[in-house]
Amino acid sequence: TLTRGCTPTFSVNSTAIIGDKIYANGQDYTQTLRDKTDVICFDTVTKESKLIYKNDKFENRHYSQTVSSMNGKLIFAAGTTEIWGGNAHPDFYELSDDGNLTLLCESDRSFYGIQSYDDCIIINLCDRLGNNIEVLKGDGSFTKVTDWRGSISSFDFNGDTYLFTGKDWTQW
Asked: Against a cut of 0.90, is the pTM above it?
């Protein structure tokens, strides 16, 4: 049986599952996407959905705003437009069910893919010389996994083995 977890016009950017709850980042729209996305929570036990974060602060590209999970906590990545405009690099926040944001860490880089993994988040980050796979830990620190000079299109991992598709800069 399928159960709708959001309105039919809610466009989902990303999801995170923590226990019996599914969190979705996106926006309700019928005409044009805006550069602010909200976060809703669908409780799979009660079958109720509620808005937990109405975004009035972050305006970077809507696809740079995303949710993921780490150590059973909801992580929200988003940036303001104060320095770089719509291309602002997102920072990482812990988001509680009552809508409170706590800064986990600042980031001055774009990311192009993000995956939750138990006690960390695996991210395809751009370090201005290329894309690399990095691990974001609960203390807000990053550990670089790859030393790649090129683009990374997609990635996955299995234990300590990381796989990615991409081009090095000599292939352009």
From this structure: no
